[in-house]
Amino acid sequence: MKKAKRLNALALSAVFTMTVILTACSSNEGSPENQNGIKPPKEGEQVTLKFSFWGDTIEKKTVTEALKRFEQETGIIVEPMHVPSDYLTKLTTMVAGNVAPDLGYLSSGAALSWAEDGKLLNLTPLIESDPDFKKEDYLDQIWYDYAPGKTIGMSTAVEGYGLMYNKDMLLDAGVELPPTEAGKAWDWDTFIEYSKKLTLDDTGKNALDPAFNPDKIKQYGFQYDPYNMMAAVVSNGGNFLTEDGTGFGLTEPEAIEAIQKLADLMYVHHVSPTPLQTKSLPDMALQTKKVAMTVSGNWALQAFAEQDFNLGVGVLPKLKESNTLLDGAPTVIFSSTKHPEEAWLLYKYMADPESVLPLIAGGLWMPLKKSWYTDPELISKWASGNKAHPEGYTESFMKQTLENGIRTPGFEVKNLTKINALVTPALDLVWTGKETAEQALKGVEPKVEPLIQGYYGR
Amino acid sequence: MNTPKFIGLDNYTRLFDGTDQYFYNSLAVTFKYVILRVPLGLIFSFIVAFLLNMEFIRGKSIFRTIFYLPVIVPAVASSMIWIWLFSPDLGLFNSFLEALNLPTLNWLYSEETVVPSIVLMSLWGMGSTIIIFLAGLQGVPRSLYEAAIVDGAGAMRKFLHITIPMMTPIIFFNLIMGSIGAFQVFTEALIMTQGGPNNASLFYNYYIYREAFLFGEMGHASAIAWILFMIILIVTAIFFRTSKSWVFYESEV
Amino acid sequence: MLRSRRISQITVYFFLLIGAAFCLLPLFWLIRSSLMTSIQIFEMPPKWIPAPFQFQNYVEALTSIDFFRFFRNTLTITISCLAGALISSSLGAYSYARLSWPGRNIFFSLLLASMMLPSAVTLIPTFIGWRLVDLINTYFPLIMPVWFGSAFDIFLLRQFYSSIPKDLDEAAYVDGAGPWTIFYRIIIPLSKPALIVIGLFSFMNSWNDFMGPLVYLNEESKFTMALGLQMFQSLHSAQWHLLMAASTFVIMPVIIVFFIGQRYFIEGITLTGMKG
């Protein structure tokens, strides 16, 4: 027993040491493997696909049911693999262990770099050889191309951004409700004025009042998560990288101006809580009337619909032009799958809004197909007549996302995770009021520049 | 997470020549944590265990269980409490400071206080160390104390000349395990700070995790992990060397 | 003299009670939140008592995931690990503390070294190892390592064993006992508090382990409660009230096991006191 244990300890340590040493001396610049050859399944063979995904209990239920229906319709067995958290850790481990699922969700940064390394299937040949599938039926913005003509597929869902507010608070303060049409979007000064009107101190004075006390604010006009700052940047005509993909876009004047204007909402106009104050604000700030207006992605509607307040939606206030962000994360097919054709069948099935309708009608997702944004009959299935999609939604979110939705950097910026690891701490200085946007971003620019590698798919 | 290729020592040179922006920063942050956390943790849990072990205390079972609770409650619940306790605006700690007319702090949200705040949190989760000390205190033979009372020793002398020496193997254990654990501090950074603000809580282990699973740089992550391994190994070896002069075993080990 | 003793006793109680209040806070918070709506949970300044009590949270939490199956799975893993931890670590520690064999110190260093590499880099090599023996999506990767002895447990027990006077062994050797008899008759009975500590920690670890089951288990029917809890949370939203209710269920057995386990500390005293 003792001896065995010793031997085991020795063997284990040895194996383990070797593995880690070997990994320590390896790099990431290997040549991509090409495993995109598609083999048709043998006659009569029972095909089983493994589909991995994340999500809360509602999403889990809907996705699992959709997979079940697919199974019944096609006879292809699908094993759902719901990963309750640390998704990327689990998937990285599975891929490294050569037991990746056949297809599933993936975060955009990992997906694009894994695709470059040959770990994911290029869907272009499948799409081109499929007479039933027309790429133009789907939104143009949702494709993740990792090289020209090579795609890993579409986003799992569309997530457009917009303004969400507590209607009663605006009515109480006598503030005109935010417009829902792009052409009528508030300009920045109007937005600040209304936000000030909605910001109250402990004696009930609003931020327009000269006697207003900014140290004792009990209700804020507008709250935003710094994560959403790209919405202001694109509205001011800026972007994360320069158009040609060679420069750091956030140090361009329009981006700096936009970010500074957001910071000014906290430290000059006192209409937005600072990150410090946000930490103590409940998730339910709209309902509890701590905050009158907020900016968020479409997904927030699902949670707001369950709360008890008079939810309103509008287009985002504009800096130069009225537009919005379009966010997402792809569903991909892993190149290790033995059944690419069947995986593609399932892929198409899950991309069909009809298959996952409860998530779309519930406010978590927006559909991938264009017709669901234009055909009144299809629109009525999700975007109106339910609590998650209040009046004005079709204009302010649906139409705005389709027509003026600008993709978030995650869709196409190379090396984004590493760049963000530098940009986020720098922006912390802006959000905490220690530095101006210009100081912070110019300060980090020399470190960011060597990491810039342009755009995927161009 | 790409195809491996042998590149010799490049992953290591990248660290020391400053190409890697986070290496020295995360080393500094981690050492700051270890230096605060290890001694404070040992002293704090030893005192609690000692008090809990006093003969006159009633309801020992209840007290022991209560002091172990912070370890049992899942992090999702306890991190919510800490976010509230540390909240600069409405938090309990700042209300307390205000009541005493002291300046309030930004706790987790400023570069200066984030590491001490995490140390404070970790002291609260010292239940396991307390329990190990308690089990050790049970093992101190009562006859020794009785003999000391016959010799007329006071409480302090009993503590210094019987309790402490008899407990040195357990103190040594907790010192070693506490240091190994503190160098690998991780969860707090993952759940509560994500290494921020401005990388002030970018603990070494979180930095490794980020390289491995967020940046997909497994090779680089392994390289920096080996450096942490060496550091812990050296620190532990030093402790073992010095242990001969202060740890008393009943039997030779 | 008596009076000053009284005062010092009160002081000790005072500090213990403050500490206890602080330590009770998370449990109280958990239970309080489990009886609120998700909105009440976040009200600021916080409310201490739910009004009204939302007992239906518990029903909803236990029915929206397959809780009882997860409970059974967790129990299977926990008990298998508990047995392994006690058997392997007590034997291993005995060998390191009491027997002498060539290379013992080197092996002990290796044992400690196994704790010094962060799991972020050992996860994948270990996973590949288990895949080579085709045991992914089984409980083996969660249970077997414990049966080969955990470094923490062996080191802890070694420290305890080495505080047991060696005269006892020697007396037994003179009486003709072998190492097994000494282990069974002397070492084990005298280290009961330490074994209970190991047992408690092992129970806690497998009960709450989250990363292991997450990485090694794929089918929901094999999931543990720690994984089940995560289902109430997602990227953008969390059903906090259900999460809290389910968490309360998950920790109750741990509290009970702990409460029962620690009572055996008392027994440890008398035994050691008699023989020491």
From TrEMBL, chain A:
Keywords: Signal, Sugar transport, Transport. This is Multiple sugar transport system substrate-binding protein. Gene3D superfamilies: Periplasmic binding protein-like II. Residues 1-24 form the signal peptide. PROSITE patterns: PROKAR_LIPOPROTEIN. SUPFAM superfamilies: Periplasmic binding protein-like II. Pfam families: SBP_bac_8. CDD domains: PBP2_TMBP_like.
Automatic annotation (TrEMBL), chain B:
InterPro entries: ABC_transporter_permease, MetI-like, MetI-like_sf. Residues 23-239 form the ABC transmembrane type-1 domain. Its main location: membrane. It comes from the Bacteria. It holds the Pfam family BPD_transp_1. Belongs to the binding-protein-dependent transport system permease family. This is Carbohydrate ABC transporter membrane protein 1, CUT1 family (TC 3.A.1.1.-). It comes from Paenibacillus algorifonticola.
Automatic annotation (TrEMBL), chain C:
It comes from the Bacteria. It holds the Pfam family BPD_transp_1. Keywords: Cell membrane, Membrane, Sugar transport, Transmembrane, Transmembrane helix, Transport. The chain crosses the membrane at residues 12-31, 75-94, 106-130, 142-161, 182-204, 240-261. It is a multi-pass membrane protein. It is found in: Cell membrane. Residues 71-261 form the ABC transmembrane type-1 domain. GO terms for biological process: transmembrane transport. Belongs to the binding-protein-dependent transport system permease family. This is Multiple sugar transport system permease protein. It comes from Paenibacillus algorifonticola.
